Amino acid sequence: MPPLRLRDRDAITTKEGIIFRVFGYSHPSNAYVCDAEYAPAEIFRSSNPKAFRNNRDRVFYKFYEDEGWKFIQNNFPQYLILHEMLQKKVVGVNLHDIQRAKKPETELQKLIGTEPQDELVGSMRKVLDFVTEHSGLHIESFGVFGSMLHGFHHPKFSDIDLIIYGRENTSRLCETLHELYGDMSSPLRNEFETDEALRGKRWKFQNLTPEEFVWHQRRKLIYAVFHDKRNGRTIKTEFEPVRDWKETRSEYDTNTRIVQKGWVKMHARITRDDDAPFLPSVYDIEPLEILDGPKESTEAERIVSYMEEFRMQAHKDEAVYVAGNLEKVTTSRGNFYQIALTYCPRYYEQTLKVETCT
Q: pLDDT class for 197, splitting at 50, 70, 90?
């Protein structure tokens, strides 16, 4: 049997029915670093009204914020794997614990080939047909994630969650979406055209205002709403970038060590943003002014963000404000420093934002 090859947003299910999302592209040789996404009602229940999922045969609940990490840590320590570079355990699944794996591109083809199609799948097909017609992209460049990947979706209430594979395809899609958003007759609109998406929500980020958040989200273009006249619904629609296979490269090295050096706040200039659409998002930087942090902060070479909020957050040559953990990376080829934005006790203090955002 050939080795299992998975990438970001592919799905893993264990014998207990816990569903994990593969996270990123750098993993130990015998396991995958993951996020816990869903668990069956037999072992986990949530009071969050948004968490309920039902695939007709079984009830599941979705994890939000750090619920998944806490659930695994407290109940299923076998799904904490040693990350040798960090010298600590992270959520992950060993190869021998994988009961089933799903690939979004394969599941999308199954969904659109199924007859009869429910309302949501029909709307998703309209989105794909509309976008591919205007962009020249092929359906094979897309995948599906979220509730539709696992058969949890509600035909009348769920969102459309799509993946776009590859850097060039992502760029072409964003160019197309920019044009479509400007066409008043288009059924696709920018979700963050207004601040409606945040109304009524409790805001937790300490160094990023709701207005700043909306400004950044609006220009990313990958967050849309689709007006389906036939079904009478306006459906939240996302296009999440994932690397094409030829673009994947693992940075996992058992001889490399990553050590936190302290909290840093700085102004910096983005010198490269090629990997900003993917998770982790990587931005090469030139430090401009250190506001607070260790003396080594002046040597920071890049920002590495594991947080979806900061995907595609800044462009090359823009000046940014960043706050996060400074890390020293020691490799066989030498040392360098980076700023990490990730799950940590100061999660909502972290930020990355363009200086001139309004």
A: confident
225-263 pLDDT per residue, tens: 999 988 889 999 999 999 999 999 999 999 999 999 999
Residues 267/298, Cβ–Cβ less than 8 Å? no
239 plus 145 within the same structural domain: yes
**Domain stop point among 213, 246, 279:** 246
Going by pLDDT thresholds of 50, 70 and 90, the confidence category of residue 358 is low
What global pTM score does this model have?
0.94
Structural domain for 97, as ranges: 11-101
Q: Is the pLDDT of residue 49 over 90?
A: no
- Residue at a domain's end among 186, 221, 246: 246
Count the Cβ atoms, other than its own, within 10 Å of residue 113. Answer: 8
Return the residue matching tokens 């594991």. 306
CATH number at residue 317: 2.40.50
CA-to-CA distance for 49 and 264, rounded, in angstroms? Answer: 37
Dihedral of alpha carbons 181, 183, 188, 189, sign: positive
Q: What is the dihedral of CA 295, 296, 297, 302, to 10 degrees?
A: 180
Residue 135 corresponds to which tokens in the numbers above?
């962009």
Question: What type of residue sits at position 284?
Answer: D
- Measured in residues, the chain has a length of 358
Domain contains 1: no
158 phi-psi bin (left φ>0, alpha ψ -120 to 50, beta other):
beta
* 8-41 exposure pattern, b = at least 16 Cβ within 10 A, e = fewer: bbbbbbbebbbbbbbbbbebbeebbbbbbbbbbe
Question: What is the pLDDT, as a whole number, of residue 183?
Answer: 94
Residue 4, domain member (yes or no)? no
Instruction: Quickly state the pLDDT bin for 1 (edges 50, 70, 90).
Output: very low
Token code pair at residue 34? 């993951």
Examine the domain organization and report whether 60 and 170 are in the same domain. Answer: no
116 and 236 together in one domain: yes
pLDDT score for 345 = 84
Structural domain count, the chain? 3
Share of the chain above pLDDT 90, in %: 85
